[in-house]
Amino acid sequence: MTLSRGHRLGPYEILDPLGAGGMGEVHLARETRLDRTVAIKILPTHLSDKPAARERFEREAKIISSLNTSSTFGTGSWSRTPPSRSRRRGRSSTRGARPRVTPT
Q1: Tens digits of per-residue pLDDT, 90-103?
Q2: How many CB atoms lie within 10 A of CB 87?
Q3: Is residue 67 part of a domain?
Q4: What pLDDT score does 61 carry?
Q5: DSSP characters for the chain?
Q6: What is the tally of structural domains in the chain?
Q7: Domain for residue 2, yes or no?
Q8: Domain housing 95
Q9: Is 23 inside a domain boundary?
Q10: Angstrom distance (rounded) from CA 69 to CA 49
Q11: What pLDDT does 21 receive?
């Protein structure tokens, strides 16, 4: 799934792509509630239905949240349920997206 500049995932607004690989895409985003810059990793739709991929994704989020270095912050939030494709109350989301947020 490729997200474009301005796409919204809940309170997060996509700014720019940072990278992509076999386990997903990472995007620079702005968390609008706290007005801070974050990185969001999205699990691809084709992996979101595979329990092993979801478990690996969640394990990675837990590991990142346990790091304590001067250049890394813990995981801000992550979701196990895919957002719907519908627009509700002015917010759009994409089915199969599984955001993981790490403040930068």
Answers
A1: 443 444 445 555 55
A2: 10
A3: yes
A4: 84
A5: --PPTT-EETTEEEEEEEEEETTEEEEEEEETTTTEEEEEEE--HHHHT-HHHHHHHHHHHHHHHH--BTTB----EE-SSPPPSS-BTTB---TT--EEEEE-
A6: 1
A7: no
A8: 8-103
A9: yes
A10: 33
A11: 87
Residue ranges of the chain with per-residue pLDDT less than 70: 1, 68-104
Write 55-60 long-range contacts (CB < 8 A, 24+). 56/23, 57/23, 57/24, 57/98, 57/100, 60/23, 60/100
Arithmetic mean of pLDDT over the chain:
75
Single pTM value for the model: 0.62
CATH number at residue 79: 3.30.200.20
Residue 33: inside a domain:
yes
Question: How does 10-23 read in b/e, with b if 16+ C-beta sit within 10 Å?
Answer: bebebbeeeeeeee
